[in-house]
Amino acid sequence: MTFKILITDNVHDSCAELLRAKGCKVDVKPSLSKEELLKAVKEYDAIIVRGKTKFTRDVIMEANSLKVIGRAGVGLDNIDLDAAFEKNIRVVSTPQASTVAVAETTIALMLSLARMIPEAVKSLKEGAWLKHKYVGFELRGKVLGIIGFGRIGKAVAKRALSFEMKVIAYDIRNIREEASAMGVEVALTLEELLKKSDILSLHIPLNKNTRHMIGEREISLMKNGAIIINTSRGGIIDTKALLKALKEGKLAGAALDVFEHEPPQTEEEWELIRLPNVIATPHIASQTQEAQSAAGVMIAEEVFKILSDITSRKETR
Length: 317
Ligand code: NAD
What we know:
By secondary structure, the chain is α/β, with parallel strands linked by helices. It is 41% helix and 16% strand. A 7-stranded parallel sheet has the order 8-7-6-9-10-11-12, sandwiched between helices. A 5-stranded parallel sheet has the order 2-1-3-4-5. Helix 1 links the parallel strand 1 and strand 2 (25-28). Helix 1 runs parallel beside helix 13, helix 5 (99-115) crosses helix 7 and helix 11 runs parallel beside helix 12 (267-274). The two termini are 16 Å apart. Bound molecules: nicotinamide-adenine-dinucleotide. Nicotinamide-adenine-dinucleotide binds next to helix 5 and helix 7.
């Protein structure tokens, strides 16, 4: 049986290579229009994407050949999971592939904010030697509050502890044992975490419970001069509330890899990005050779296994 698989969204070449080596017929199209996607769900056994292609309910309901949606990476917010379940389409992802890349980016953003590295680099390239302007702060001794003590949250905690930071974590799961084994304090409520943190870092999925989880009220509970790092999903922070807090000086800075719209669309998003106390990157946290290659291989193996299992079940009936 030859499986017909479409790969889009610039999934790493390792994915197509592995599937072709297994005898699949693979088409690669770096991006798909909605019309092309509506056609593809009727032609392919599996479609492999990253975060750009949107499997909305209306798209999924048109599917008649599609058996698997493979997401190379983490976060399934571009796929309507209820609709996929109703159509008996399996949805799989590779959450473990990008953990280290995102954790390292989080630390890089934290250090960049603390030491104003992007601004210092820019001014020197422009010919200015502003040694006395860029007096930053050290991470040692600062309280890092982590929301979401999953794979990435824990990997960030491990790295932050090596910088001698004090780490506190909040999660909806019971994380007491995992946290205490690492020397991380547990906050029993979000409010407790917000009040205690010098630096707040978000590592939770975007869903209906977490959308705008950090808004005006939550920011008002934070220490004056605290900073926020977001490498999870843009919609978790209310952009307007963050912009206001940064402009008024309630927060000292923010480092953002993710935005409510990607690319950013609203005036508030662009104003936020352009603030001098904001470091913004275009959703690059998982963009390492290692993470992308691993995600390509892992999703190819998983999708092939599911298609093979479905076929062998049909044959034994
Ligand atoms: P994970 O599932 O291992 O961890 C998420 C943790 O968040 C879990 O422990 C879960 O219990 C907790 N959680 C869920 N809802 C919560 C809530 N309302 N309050 C508190 N805790 C809550 O996921 P992960 O691999 O650590 O990834 C975390 C997020 O990072 C992903 O969902 C994704 O959105 C984001 N991410 C971003 C990039 C990027 O390129 N910037 C790359 C990978 C992942």
